Amino acid sequence: MKKDRAEVIMAGSGGQGLVVSGMMLAEAAILEEKNVVQTVSYGIASRGGFSMAEVIIDKEEIVFQQVQQADVVLILTEEAMEKLYAMADQGTSIFYDTTLLKNRKDERFYGQPFTELAAELGHAGTANVIALGYIAQITGLIKIESLAEVIRSRFSGKVQNLNLKALQKGCDLVTGNPA
To answer: Which segments of 102-156 does DSSP mark as H helices, in order?
Structure first.
């Protein structure tokens, strides 16, 4: 997908770390000297309600600050899939969690058991970071090293190590390296 502009949507429910994922993706793009806009929307419930983060990454100035045609969508709930499923017909690559959603059979859908893998790491809350690593590795949207740098600057100690392992696990899903 290496191109000058990318529009990304991350959707699921509150508490799945999608807002943090959006911020991390945006920060990584800034490290790569790209222009970024990151927005969030969520229901009144902080946990369990619909939650969505949008990130636009561009080498040029970003004038319109909302996603118009997503290139990549990460979906972590069936509710979000129902809302965003049709984007696949428009050429959008949709990444989703097979632990939480039923399997889709289409070349534009990339399903992986992000939550199951996160639980194996010891914390289901790292599913969003595994997904980020997987998406970055497949799309080339952002460098893995940039995401790792963001993790090192945002977290410390055991949390940092866990998130770095989660990022690597996402990459390993693509490269086939044993976890």
So the answer is: 114-121, 127-139, 144-154
